[in-house]
Amino acid sequence: MGRLVMKFGGTSVANIERIHNVARHVKREVDAGHDVAVVVSAMSGKTNELVAWASAASPMHDAREYDAVVASGEQITSGLLAIALQSLGVQARSWQGWQIPIQTSDAHASARILGIDGAELIKRFKERKEVAVVAGFQGIHEATGRITTLGRGGSDTSAVAIAAAIHADRCDIYTDVDGVYTTDPRVVPKAKRLDKVAFEEMLELASQGAKVLQVRSVELGMVHNVRVFVRSSFEKPEDIDPHGTPPGTLICSEEEIVESQVVTGIAFSKDEAQISVRHIEDKPGVAAAIFGPLADASINVDMIVQNISPDGKTTDLTFTVPASDYNRARDTIEKARDKIGYKTMDSATDVAKVSVIGIGMRSHAGVAAQAFKALSERNINIRAITTSEIKFSLLIDAAYTELAVRTLHTLYGLDQA
Ligand code: ASP
Ligand code: MG
Question: Of 45, 145, 230, 291, which is the most buried if we count CB atoms within 10 A?
């Protein structure tokens, strides 16, 4: 007997039939003797619709009211699932973020969870075996009493936070893929499902473009050591042995991973833009003059490369920003032109970032060098490079993304036999 959080995404609760299917998944775990808290997303497409309504009401709208609108999708699915569970004879009730309460910051539309008191949920497990059906994505800012939301994809984060608060043995994320793969199987059909991934690796995979989980949920899992299991919601509840090991990927601490490969996975993102500021005088304070204004504009700079200009006297600085911030970033640099004192700026949006990730890199030298060689043999030019302890990223022309990912996947022995 244990305690579980089961999280279901939008496709799993897209209609009443699927909500009944989810209820049967939940009943299976309850019948196996577990305490269960379920976290649900809104029906697929619902949040997009609500966001569009808020914009239609006024393009410039109050973020507090935006949250009041978009949080409603999860209110509906939590109530519907509680009804479906009751119809199966399972004791259940729905919980909105403010009822538990899930306390958050007041950063509306991207609030952070500050604390959750799980005592009431635990008491109800003990006293009446009641399933808690929690609306994901939402919380409350205590001082103002206003509803908040956690940013798109935030119900993953709700689920992990609830798991930490009720001391769950595991947080199961039911989704439309059956786990985390070595890379996107649509690009590399030979991609393998990983049995286990360390939190640090998953954090890099998610930040570098793998879209399985919200990045923040992985951070929370790492901080609170919540074991997160990514599994498919399309399996029939009746086909699953509640005591067996279902297919999926466990995201856990490094200590739980006995044998690890040097490279675990390859992520990529085409939502990148490159900006090069050229012929800047090479003196102290220049980097601050460029990156200070970008930071003030809340633009996230990722890769940074500095080199000597062809004339030998000045320096060039190249960096990347999310494609969605590209125009703002260019404007920001142009406005600071006098302060920076550069000659030209050029930029490109048809670039992609490919990242190779693995905790094994800590103890192996020359991992990146192999990639440089393999890509050069394919005539793929590398525009920028960054490295960290367990990851390196390469900026290349977007047209070569698939080829680069496939080449590296084979190079590091990740292809399925
Ligand atoms: N419904 C929200 C969204 O679409 C939260 C979630 O699904 O995780 O972003
Ligand atoms: Mg999601």
Answer: 230
Pocket of ligand 1 (CB under 6 A): 9-10, 41-42, 47, 73, 136-137, 152-156
What ligand 1 atom has the least distance to the C-alpha of 154?
A: 8
- pLDDT digit string, tens, across residues 231-251: 998 888 888 887 778 899 999
Enter the CATH code of domain 3-254.
Answer: 3.40.1160.10
**Residue 316 alpha carbon to ligand 1 centre in Å:** 41
pTM: 0.90
**pLDDT value of position 244:** 79
**266-416: CATH topology:** VC0802-like (3.30.2130)
Quote the CA–CA distance of 138 and 289 in Å, as a whole number: 38
Structure tokens at 15: 């209609």
Residues with pLDDT less than 70, the chain: none
Query: Which residues, in sequence order, are bridge partners of residue 135?
Result: 40
Alpha-carbon span 166 to 291, nearest angstrom: 42
Which of the ligands is closest to the CA of residue 76? 1
* Smallest CA separation from ligand 1 atom 6, residue: 153
In angstroms, what is the span from residue 40 Cα to ligand 1's centroid?
9
- The domain locations on the chain are 3-254, 266-416
Q: Is the preceding peptide bond at 247 cis, omega within 30 degrees of 0?
A: no
Sign of the Cα pseudo-torsion (211, 216, 217, 220, in order): positive
Distance 137 CA to ligand 1 centre (A): 6
* Nearest CA, atom 5, ligand 1: 153
